[in-house]
């Protein structure tokens, strides 16, 4: 199990990819009636679909709640999701042979694991319960004027839209998103092409996700209480995340102050910060501009090309070919997981 102990929320996510189920138990939740259809649509964006980017391990991903009556939460609840579609024999040839860059070898170092079936507790199956909590909190935050939306900004070397070129409102992102299943923006064909090309040779490809959060003002504080740190630490709980930047992020390191600073003006009697290179946060506090952030997802570790690894039992070098069902580009199905991580971080601050 993995526990988030927030200021108000306690979220305990448990289960494994090839166990009977994964689940979550939550405490400190607001009293709130959520829209079950909307939650279903949100979960569907994470669900495997068999499309070019996605694993063919398709699961129903329907949460079974306890502590929720007619869509109404009452401070505490649990949600469990069955793992109905497991093929553990896909992993039998990998016994004792860690998949490079998956959690397998680090898991072996920690717990002595040799059976890496499905990636155990390190599997992205555990983002399903994360999305149950995040999906409900996203709805709750919307009632408080806070919107969180994300989109694929690049896949491999192909780039699509970025807030760095043109800021987008949450509403625009939703409109631009094709159908909620393959949620990219413009230049979708180029992105799909990158995934197809990698997949056709048994490979995988990385990608970036951008997230825009509107309606947050004065939340966060200095040093250990900074909002960037809180959001980033929750986003790093999503498997395969290897970088997070806010606003212009690493590009700011190449600029001068005169180009990087966001000027303030009075417009219609209101203070406005007229550019947003800082990504909506200064001094760890939301400055009222949209919070913009970009997340780097590594290419899926499980690829079907031959790879160098070791046999931990025989203590010798070996090669593996991974034959299981895997996502070709994890960034696509990770969008709701990123939104969920952000929703948890912000809800825990404002509750
Ligand atoms: C939505 C999503 C789907 C994923 N699908 C796979 C997959 O099919 N195969 C795989 O090897 N890794 C997959 N991953 C990535 C692994 O879970 C991740 O790389 C692994 O747990 C090691 O963690 P790390 O990359 O954060 O170090 C997925 C990640 C996410 C977010």
Bound molecules: flavin mononucleotide
Give the termini separation. 24 Å
> Quick check: average pLDDT?
93
Range of helix content: 25-40%
Number of domains: 1
Strand % is 25-35%
Question: What is Rg?
Answer: 21 Å
CATH fold annotation: Chorismate synthase, AroC fold
CATH class assignment:
Alpha Beta
| Structural class designation | alpha+beta
CATH second-level architecture: 4-Layer Sandwich
Q: What is the assembly state of the chains in this entry? A: single chain
Number of helices: 8
Write the layout of secondary structure elements.
Layout: E1 2-5, E2 10-15, E3 21-27, E4 32-33, H1 36-46, E5 64-69, E6 72-82, H2 104-111, H3 127-143, E7 147-155, E8 158-159, H4 170-176, H5 188-200, E9 207-214, E10 217-220, H6 227-235, E11 241-246, H7 257-260, E12 264-267, E13 270-273, E14 281-282, E15 285-287, E16 291-297, E17 307-311, E18 316-320, H8 330-350
Antiparallel strand pairs: 1-2, 2-3, 3-6, 4-6, 5-6, 7-8, 7-9, 9-16, 10-15, 11-16, 12-13, 14-15, 17-18
Helix pairs in contact: 1-3, 1-8, 3-8, 6-8
Brief sketch in words of this structure:
This protein is an alpha+beta fold and 351 residues long.
Your description of this structure?
This protein is of the alpha+beta class. The chain has one domain: Chorismate synthase AroC (Chorismate synthase, AroC fold, 4-Layer Sandwich), CATH 3.60.150. Helix content is 26%, strand content 27%. It contains 8 helices and 18 strands. Strands 1, 2, 3, 4, 5 and 6 form a 6-stranded antiparallel beta sheet that branches. The chain has a 5-stranded antiparallel beta sheet with strand order 8-7-9-16-11. Helix 1 (36-46) packs across helix 3, helix 3 (127-143) crosses helix 8 and helix 6 (227-235) packs antiparallel against helix 8 (330-350). The protein is globular. Bound molecules: flavin mononucleotide. Flavin mononucleotide binds next to helix 8.
């Amino acid at each position: 199990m993995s526990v988030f102990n927030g200021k108000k929320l306690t979220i305990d996510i448990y289960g494994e990819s090839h166990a009977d189920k994964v689940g979550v138990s939550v405490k400190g939740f607001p009293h709130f009636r959520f829209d079950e259809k909307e939650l279903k649509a949100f979960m569907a964006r994470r669900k495997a679909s068999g499309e070019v980017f996605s694993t063919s391990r398709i699961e129903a991903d329907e949460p079974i709640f306890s502590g929720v009556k007619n869509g109404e939460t009452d401070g505490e609840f649990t949600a469990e999701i069955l793992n109905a579609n497991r093929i553990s024999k896909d992993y039998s040839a990998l016994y004792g042979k860690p998949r490079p860059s998956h959690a397998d070898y680090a898991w072996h170092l920690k717990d002595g694991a040799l059976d890496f079936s499905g990636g155990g507790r390190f599997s992205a199956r555990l983002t399903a319960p994360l999305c149950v909590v995040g999906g409900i909190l996203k709805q709750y935050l919307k009632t408080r004027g806070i919107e969180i939306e994300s989109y694929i900004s690049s896949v491999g070397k192909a780039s699509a839209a970025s807030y760095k070129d043109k800021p987008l409102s949450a509403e625009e992102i939703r409109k631009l998103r094709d159908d909620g299943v393959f949620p990219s923006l413009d230049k979708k064909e180029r992105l799909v092409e990158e995934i197809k090309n990698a997949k056709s040779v048994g490979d995988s490809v990385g990608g970036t996700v951008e997230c825009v959060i509107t309606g947050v003002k004065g939340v966060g504080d200095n040093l250990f209480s900074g909002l960037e740190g809180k959001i980033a630490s929750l986003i790093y709980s999503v498997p395969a995340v290897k970088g997070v930047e806010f606003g212009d992020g690493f590009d700011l390191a190449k600029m001068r102050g005169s180009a990087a600073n966001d000027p303030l003006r009075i417009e219609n009697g209101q203070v406005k910060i007229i550019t947003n290179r800082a990504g909506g946060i200064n001094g760890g506090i939301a400055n009222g501009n949209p919070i913009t952030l970009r997340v780097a997802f590594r290419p899926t570790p499980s690829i079907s090309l031959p790879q160098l690894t070791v046999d931990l039992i025989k203590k010798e070098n070996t090669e593996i070919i991974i034959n299981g069902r895997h996502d070709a580009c994890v960034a696509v199905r990770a969008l709701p997981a990123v939104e969920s991580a952000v929703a948890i971080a912000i809800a825990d601050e404002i509750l």
